[in-house]
Amino acid sequence: MSVLGTIVGVVIPYIAGFIFVVGVIYRIFFWSRSVVPFKIPTTCGQQKSLPWLRRTWMDRFDSPYTNWETAVRMLMEVFLFRSLWKNVRYELPAQTAVSTKWLWLFALTFHWSLLIVLIRHFRFFLEPVPDFVNIIQNLDGFLEVHIGWLWFQLHVVHIMITGLTLLVALLYLLYRRLFMPRERSLSLPSDYVALILLLCVVITGLLMRYVISVDVAQVKELAQGLLSFHPPASPDLHWLFMLHLLFVSVLLAYFPFSKLMHSAGIFFSPTRNMPNNNRAVRHINPWNYPVKGVDWDEFYEEFKEDMEELEQMGYVVKPEEEV
Amino acid sequence: MSKTPLVAVLLIFIGFFFFPYFYSVASGQLGKPVPELEKPKGDHCIEDAKWMEENHMVLLKEWRDHVIRQGIRTYISDTYGTAYNISTYTCFECHTSKANFCDKCHDYTGVKPNCWDCHVYPELLEKYR
Question: Can you list the pairs that B55-63 forms with residues at least 24 positions away whose Cβ atoms lie under 8 Å?
């Protein structure tokens, strides 16, 4: 286990972490430099217009006019997935659009569960374990259960709800791509890779939590060693934890190249992060090449003869002098 | 593109993923190893010590069920074959302190067992004896 332990426990996590941090920062800066030629917010509400046009308070966030309204809209997008909430399916016999909230429900469940699970993992990286992690852990584990058969004894008394909802939501997201015809036809391998990698991480994590117990003190020691850049020479930990760590490392290394970058990409979406104030504020296209203008006097000088001819025919050529 | 999204994403990214590093540096306990436990009194634990490190909670749960639900008061060790009286007091015979033994690892890893909601622990026993 020693050489393998060093590779899986120290070398691969560092390489993966390096790829993750550098890759994500590179892509963030790359995206921030991209050109936005037009102001293209997609809106779902009445835009700010003439004062007598009725505009509800929700319209202000669905068709934001100021920067802070745009910020609120972004927050609702990030935390509540409002654009998924508006997901509709077209029913052929009835010829109507039926709202379908399943994707919204499971996507939201998945992302919130993942966030809480990540925060719970802070107990391995933070020393001493701060109160907010303990509080989240207590709230998450408020269900106390008894599961015990002859062959299987749950070694914990508290079920962590988010771990299980994470698994259920992921399974639904995979089910939807596998068994719903339209979703299946537009799924690419990269969609499945992300889902399956996440599933591997979640399943190994849940196995460790509920079935095969691992010495978590040693896990924390390794995490602290990695964090302080003084890793143990050859960590000798449980194989299941090593597998979990390996999957997480692969996921981290894959992250910057994958669709998982949507986590940063949402902030760079011009359809979401721009206020809908086209009529009030001019958007300058950065692609506009500099135009050398010609003013009226220069124009008149250049075509003087033609102009005078026109003037003699009775047309008004020169603008009237302002008094 | 305006630089606002870049700043926001960088703040979130660094704030979330580098928070553990900054926090541990600030608390001055970066890279803290597993705390040293008080050496228990006896020769060996009820089961193999390595197994106990990972699975003591399984044993304790099993004991709880044996006593409370089935009324079994003796436990035969798988490893050593000796009989033990199922009671937290059996543990206390060797592990004489909660603060210097249990709590050390539990605090280190943020584990909050609910044993002591009901059960007495050695320090409390000492105090009220």
Answer: B55/A155, B55/A213, B57/A155, B57/A156, B57/A213, B57/B113, B58/A153, B58/A155, B58/A213, B60/B115, B61/A148, B61/A153, B61/A154, B61/A155, B61/A157, B62/A148, B62/A153
Residue A122 maps to a domain: yes
Q: Which two tokens stand for residue A234?
A: 């050859």
Find how far residue A163's CA is from the centre of its chain: 20
Q: Which residue has the higher pLDDT, A97 or A76?
A: A76
Instruction: Fill in the DSSP letter of residue A153.
Output: B
Q: Is A92 on the interface with B (CB under 8 A)?
A: no
CB pairs under 8 A between A and B: 117
- Enumerate the domain spans of chain B: 1-32, 35-128
Question: Do A82 and A294 touch, CB atoms closer than 8 A?
Answer: no
Q: Pick from B7, B34, B66 the residue to mutate for testing the A interface (most A CBs within 10 Å).
A: B34
Asked if A153's CB is within 8 angstroms of B9's CB, the reply is: no
| Residue contact B112–A227, C-beta within 8 A | no
Could you tell me if residue A183 is inside a domain? yes
* Alpha-carbon gap, residue A25 to A8, rounded angstroms: 25
pLDDT at residue A95 tops 90: no
Among A126, A154, A222, the strongest candidate for a mutation testing the B interface, having the largest count of B CBs within 10 A, is A126
Q: Give the ipTM.
A: 0.88
Q: Which residues partner with A153 through β-bridges?
A: A148
- Token pair 């995206």: residue: A31
